[in-house]
Design brief:
The complex is a heterotrimer of chains A (166), B (358) and C (63). With 166 residues, chain A is mainly alpha-helical. Helix content of chain A is 96%, strand content 0%. The longest helix of chain A has 137 residues. With 63 residues, chain C is an all-alpha fold. The chains are: A mainly alpha (166), B mainly alpha (358), C mainly alpha (63). Chain C: Keywords: ATP synthesis, Cell membrane, CF(0), Hydrogen ion transport, Ion transport, Lipid-binding, Membrane, Transmembrane, Transmembrane helix, Transport.
Chain lengths: 166, 358, 63
């Protein structure tokens, strides 16, 4: 211990203290403060830039999410519209079919009715024609028969014969 | 991995040198060998001492010196300033303002007259009166040099930030990571995010100062500032003062009235803790001083071994060992600066810590 | 310098050496176990080693 402090020199201590403290204060003013300040500023700048980038990224993500949502909505709407359209179409087709069926049925009924009347008329006409034809034929036959006496009698006889059988 | 490779040859060398020093025992001219040993020992001791002139090297058996004298400033009944060349490297008595001074083991003592002698007491300690000595010694010159270098380097670095829009240029590119290392790895973890800013100037200055000064100690100019107890005492004292003056209520409470322990223990702990506040900077002082001194002594002894062996194998092996140790000393120079700064920061952190974690 | 003081200092240095060795060894193990915490472990190791080293120097200079 004695040896340790035997080498102690007050002068060196004095100069060291003076020079070192002066160095601390000078460097504080002219070096450390500006250096640390610029480093801090730079780091702050980098931090801010990173934060801004992060924010931008987040915003982008939000935007994308919004877009996705909108897209989804649009798709759903389109789907709904399509469905509606399909429904309407189906309904229209259905309606049209029904209408057509109805119309066809009506037409058929009308046609049938017309056919019926036509048929009736035709039958009536046929009847009248058959009657007139048969009258004519009968007239001709009668004329012929009545022109011959023997034949007239024969006819009467056969008729009578038939009448009795009835 | 690199360390592992490096250490193997070192151990091998150490073994070889041990054997060789045994073999050297029965060399015939023992007397000249012991002379050389004492000479080397004295040289090392001389090297570790501060000196009043800037002596770069001596030649012609220490008769002629290459260097320049430095001013001697004494306070002895008035200020006395004269050139250290008056001492003629400790051989003559210097006269200034009617008083006479002589060098003895690298220190200035007052003597009676132009032919006055140093009166030696026990253990070769001179009993003469010592004037108050504020001389610009070799170490003061080096401190001033480091002062100038650091001021020039860092103010230029600061300017380059301004010029370059917040980016360093030149040496700043190299220094900035170190500055940031001190901030992020030393100051913030030990002191805390909120309070570290106040201490940054001191921590940065002390880190670079000790580092650069240690590195200068390794140059062949042969100046070593940090193996003067005065220098390390000054640094440790500043750390101690900063710690003491920035100590908050919580810090003092932990010293005088340790919370969470029974009252008798509190009374026992108070003096121990109080002593601890002094021991901490004391250890700081001793550590730096002892590491650098020990490093220099070992390195120079091994360099001296080159001349003691005086054969090609031993000398080249001690050269290799000195080389490896020199590299190790480079690491120690930075490591001691780092440890000094870390421990200072740790003590500041203890002083300003305010949450009660007990 | 008396012999007992030197022996005592030697004992302290041996103790400090063992202490620093143990710190170094434990730090190596810790680094091997958690390589990601290397920086923190190294810092703690250096601080602990420095504190023990202080004791060793104190013993050396007390002689």
């Amino acid at each position: 211990m004695e040896e340790l402090f035997g080498g102690f020199s007050l002068g060196l201590f004095f100069w060291q203290a003076v020079l070192f403290l002066a160095l601390v204060f000078l460097l504080k003013k002219f070096a450390w403060k500006p250096i640390l300040d610029s480093v801090n500023n730079r780091e702050e700048g980098i931090k801010n830039a990173l934060e801004a980038a992060e924010n931008a990224k987040k915003e982008m993500e939000n935007l994308q999410a919004d877009n996705q949502k909108l897209l989804k909505e649009a798709r759903a709407e389109r789907e709904a519209m399509l469905k509606e359209a399909r429904d309407i179409k189906n309904k229209m087709i259905e309606d049209a079919k029904e209408e057509a069926n109805e119309a066809a049925a009506k037409l058929m009924a009308q046609a049938q009715a017309t056919i019926q009347t036509e048929k009736k008329a035709a039958i009536l006409e046929l009847k009248s024609q058959v009657a007139s034809l048969s009258i004519e034929i009968a007239e001709k036959v009668v004329q012929d028969e009545l022109s011959n006496k023997g034949k007239q009698e024969k006819l009467v006889e056969s008729m009578l014969g038939e009448a009795t059988l009835n | 991995m690199r360390k592992k490779i490096a250490f193997k040859p070192v151990t091998l060398l150490l073994l070889l040198i041990t054997f060789m020093s045994f073999a050297k025992e029965d060399v015939k001219h023992e007397e000249s060998g012991s002379d050389l040993k004492t000479e080397i020992k004295e040289y090392i001791q001389h090297h570790l001492l501060d000196s009043y002139d800037f002596n770069l090297f001596s030649y012609d058996n220490g008769e002629k010196h290459f260097g320049f004298p430095l001013p001697v400033i004494l306070w002895d009944n008035g200020l006395k300033v004269f050139s250290s060349s008056k001492f003629h490297h400790g051989e003559t008595v210097a006269e200034a303002g009617g008083s006479y001074y002589k060098l003895h083991h690298g220190k200035i003592y007052k003597v009676d007259g132009p032919n006055g002698e140093i009166i030696e007491g026990d253990h070769h300690h001179a009993t003469n009166e010592k004037p108050l000595d504020f001389s610009i010694t070799k170490n003061v010159v080096l401190i001033a040099m480091v002062f100038a270098i650091m001021f020039f380097m860092f103010s230029r670095m600061a300017k380059s930030y301004k010029k370059n829009n917040g980016m360093p240029k030149g040496t700043g590119r190299f220094l900035e990571p170190i500055v940031l290392y001190v901030r992020d790895e030393i100051a913030i973890p030990n002191i805390g995010e909120k309070k570290y800013k106040k201490y940054m100037s001191y921590l940065l200055t002390v880190f670079f100062f000790v580092w650069i000064v240690n590195l200068f100690g390794l140059t062949p100019i042969g100046m070593n500032v940090t193996n003067n107890i005065a220098v390390t005492l000054c640094l440790a004292l500043i750390t101690y003062l900063i710690t003491t003056f920035s100590g908050n209520k919580n810090y003092w409470k932990h010293i005088f009235w340790m919370p969470g322990v029974p009252v008798p223990m509190k009374i026992i702990l108070a003096p121990i803790e109080l002593l601890g506040t002094i021991i901490k900077p004391f250890a700081l002082m001793i550590r730096l001083y002892a590491n650098i001194t020990a490093g220099h002594v070992v390195l120079m002894s091994i360099i001296g071994m080159m001349f003691i062996f005086n054969n090609w194998l031993g000398s080249s092996l001690s050269f290799l060992l000195a080389f490896v140790l020199g590299i190790l000393e480079l690491l120690v120079a930075a490591l001691q600066a780092y440890i000094f700064t870390v421990l200072s920061a740790l003590y500041f952190g203890m002083a300003v810590e305010d949450h009660d974690h007990h | 310098m008396e012999i007992p003081a030197i022996v005592g200092a030697g004992l302290v240095v041996i103790g400090a050496g063992i202490g620093i060795g143990k710190i170094g060894g434990s730090a190596m193990e810790a680094i091997a176990r958690q390589p990601e915490a290397t920086g923190k472990i190294q810092t703690a190791m250096l601080i602990a080693a420095a504190l023990i080293e202080g004791i060793g120097f104190a013993a050396l200079f007390a002689v």
